[in-house]
Structure formats: structure tokens, C-alpha cells
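Obj.: predict assembly geometry.
Materials: sequence records (below).
Method: joint structure prediction, all chains together.
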Amino acid sequence: MNLTTNKDLGGFLAQELIKQSEHDAAVTPMDTVLDAARAGKFSADQCFRLLARLWTLKRTMYYVYGGWAQGINLNEYPPSVAYLFGKQIYDESTHEMQFCDEILRRRWVRTQKQLFAHPYAQFGTATRTGSYIFCLRALANYPQNVRIAALNLGPKVIELAWTEKFAKTFPDEAIHALFHSQLAETRSHVLMGRFQVERFLQKEVDTELAKRLCAETRRDYLFYLEESARFVLGMQEEKAGEVSVSGDID
Amino acid sequence: MAGLKIAHDKCTECRMCYVVCREININAVVVSPTSQHLLEIDERCIYPKCTVCLMYCPAEGSIVETDTGRSLVPPPPEVWTENQRWPRQ
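Observations (raw C-alpha cells):
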């Protein structure tokens, strides 16, 4: 039987979300970081900044998944959904450890405790990173199939795309290897997302919700990437625009 | 007879093949009874009639054709078909 029947909402949705995310992933702020590295304009300090920002995001995912885990009710989904969720947490943890290991190996800081306290690795609440993380955490109130659609077929697709580019051409051998080693797991998260959406997202209301949430998480993740790229390259931070309200509003 | 096997030097043990094979009740991917608990594909596999594990495997080269040793991840076009991938009710 063909996957794309009218009843197959999940299949259509997965295709649509992946397509939209791949479109967003074609060019991201991380391209500028990679271009600078390839042009030999990337200092050790900038490399430290890059790994520290990536580490910060990965470690705060524990906070997100902690909230989500409370929302998986017994018998609501088959065991495979709980397993895949556990595997995703495990993989993110591995990536977090890799970023930290590389920073310690290069002696940019001497201990993990120092890294937590270092300005490059701070988690700020009023930042793009904070906005993205809190947006994800807020998905704890939604069913697992909807939030997995929002994350794994949104930001994860974008993450996979820029990681692939870094894995191909990042000039530093050790960091190149680090990104390359993460590819299969990140790709696996996208495929896990596709599987769960195809199989367990079959209501029209959930489909519409997933579309909206996926668009929001993609947007917030791109803002996170922009903030990180600016920080890594030492560019001026984005200034919030003034909002003017007309005086004759009733 | 054609069959599939897992190339353990490439496999990341993510278990997606196990999950999707269970999902469609073929149950050909099993956890081996060794201390490493590696995944194996047994005689219940109906490849080439089903290619579902190939569709969801993220690690290039980690599932191969038993007879030829040919890598099937990512699935070559002649192996991948929509209707073989996901038998639905």
C-alpha cells in the first residue's frame, strides 16, 4: 500500500515538515562560522567560544527532556516511543560530553566546574538560547508525538544540515572528527521523528498543532544559531528594536 | 536466499531497525544472547519483500546483503520502494 493515502496524515505531515526544515537549513548563520574557519580566520579563542556555546545548548537539553519525561504516561504510547526518547537523551548526553571533553583536552579550562563558571558557557535566561530552551520546555504540556514532531523534524533537521557541513570541511582535525562522529546520531533523531510522526500522529488537530509548533521551534533555533555565530565571530550583539505605539490607540 | 545482516563495525546500536521491525510484526531483528547484546537479523527477515529497517537506519553501511556484502544503507533506488517499506492496514 502506498504511504501517501488521504488517511495518512502522519506521512504527509512528516514529508511537509522535513521539506520546510530542509529549506530553512540550506543557509544558516553557522555557514559564516564555517567560512571563517576555512579561510584560516578562526582563532583558538573563537573555537573555544563555538564549542562552549554548543555545550551550553546540549547541557540545557537535560532541562527540556526532564520536563518532557514527566508527560509520557503509562500505556499512552507503545514501548518503542519511550525507548526512542531515552535513546535521544542518551545521544544528546554523549554530544554534550564530547564538547566538554574537547574543551578540557585543549586546556581552555582545567575542570568541568571551571567551564560551568566560564563566561563563554553561561546560560542566560534573557537570550536567544534561553528563548529556544524555554520554548522547548513549554512543549512539556503537549503530547509526545506533537513535541517530537516539533523538535525532531524542525531544529534537528537544521542541526543535521550544518553538522554535515562542519563534518565535511571544518579544517581542525579533532573538531572535524567530533562533528563527523555525531552525524549518525543526529540523523537518527530525524529518522526517529519521522517514524513517530508517520506512525502516531493521525489526528487533524495534532497535525495543525505540530505544524505551528514546528515553525516556532525552527525559528527559535535559527535565532539561537544567529546569536551563537555572532558570539563566536565577535560580532556586535543584535539590539532590540524600539517599539512605538501610536498615541491615538483607543 | 537473499537476507540481511548487520555490519557491527558500522552499526551505532541505535536500535531503530529493531523498533520498526517489531512495529510491523516481522520481529526479525533480535538482541543477541551475548554479553555485548548486539543486534542481529535472523531467518524471519523477508528481505527483499520488506525494506523497512533500511529506511530508518542512520548509519551508512551498517546493514548489508548477506550474500553479496553489498551495503544497503542508504538504500539504493532498486531496493527502496514505498509499498515494501511500510505494510499498512
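Conclusions so far: The interface with chain A takes residues 12, 14-16, 19-20, 22-23, 55-60, 82-83, 85-88 of chain B (CB under 8 Å).
To do: check interface contacts against the pulldown list.
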